[in-house]
C-alpha cells in the first residue's frame, strides 16, 4: 500500500488487535468506523475486504446503501438493526472476549445524506439517526467496525464524520507502484495458492514487472486485466491439442541399455 494508506491501516490494525483489557487500562477506544473515499474503481472495496480479512475471522457483512432503503415505514431502520444483531448477541454473551464483526457499506452517500436535504417523509433522516445510535449511542458496541465506501464524502451527514463514528477517513486514489503490486498479489492469490499459476507468472509477479507495466491503471483496471489473463489462459487450455496433451501426456521413450560387443 502507499505510505498514507499503510499508516492509517496500521493504526486501525494495532488498536483492534490490542486485547480489550489492555485497551481499557490505556484508556483507548478502537475506531468503530472507517470511511474510504475516492474516485470510482480505485480499489476501495478491495481494500475494505482485505482489512476485514486481516482483522476478523467472522463472516463479513457487505451491503450497498440503496439496499437498506425500503418503501415501507420503519423497514429501513429494521434492516439496519439486523446488521448489528449478531455483534450485539455475541457481545452480550461473551463480553470482552467477543470477536470483531465487520460491516462494509458501499455507496454510503446514497442513503446517509445530510439530514433535511431530501423530502422523503424523513426516511433517510431516520436511517441516519439509527446508524448514529448504533455506532456511538448509549448501546454502542466495541466489537464492531463499520467500513463505509463513497465517491462523494461531502454528501454524507457531518454527524457521521465526527470522532466516534467514521472518525478514520482515508482517501483511496489511483494506486501507486507498491499498491499495484499488492492488488495484483491479491487477485492472483487464488491461482498461486491452488497451484494454477505457471512459474513464469510467479516470476513476473515477484520481479515487479507487471506492477511497473500497469502504471495509470485503477484497481478495477487491474482486476479486469487479471480476469482477461485468466480467460485467455483457459481458452488456450481448452484447445483440442491442449486437452489431448493434458489427458494423454507424452510418454518419454524408455532408454534401453546399450549392448556391449561380445569379445
From TrEMBL:
Q: Where are the transmembrane segments?
A: none
- The Enzyme Commission number assigned here is 3.6.4.6
Give a GO cellular-component term. Answer: Golgi stack
- Group of enzyme by EC: hydrolase
Q: Where is this region: Disordered?
A: 238-263
Location relative to the cell: Cytoplasm
- Name the residue ranges with Basic and acidic residues bias: 247-263
Q: Which reaction does it catalyse?
A: ATP + H2O = ADP + phosphate + H(+)
**Could you tell me the Gene Ontology terms of the biological process aspect for this record?**
Golgi to plasma membrane protein transport; intra-Golgi vesicle-mediated transport; SNARE complex disassembly
The primary location reported for this protein is cytoplasm
Please name the InterPro entries in this protein's record.
Answer: AAA+_ATPase, AAA_lid_3, ATPase_AAA_core, P-loop_NTPase, Vesicle-fus_ATPase
MF terms from GO for this chain are: ATP binding; ATP hydrolysis activity; metal ion binding
Q: So which cofactors does this thing need?
A: Mg(2+)
The UniProt note on the cofactor reads as follows: Binds 1 Mg(2+) ion per subunit.
Q: Does the keyword section mention Metal-binding? A: yes
* Residue ranges occupied by any AAA+ ATPase domain in the UniProt entry: 30-176
Q: Which UniProt keywords apply?
A: ATP-binding, Cytoplasm, ER-Golgi transport, Hydrolase, Magnesium, Metal-binding, Nucleotide-binding, Protein transport, Transport
User: Which family does the record assign?
Assistant: Belongs to the AAA ATPase family.
Q: Tell me, what does this protein do in biology? A: Required for vesicle-mediated transport. Catalyzes the fusion of transport vesicles within the Golgi cisternae. Is also required for transport from the endoplasmic reticulum to the Golgi stack. Seems to function as a fusion protein required for the delivery of cargo proteins to all compartments of the Golgi stack independent of vesicle origin.
Q: What is the name listed in the Swiss-Prot or TrEMBL entry for this protein?
A: Vesicle-fusing ATPase
Could you tell me which species this protein originates from?
A: Lotharella globosa
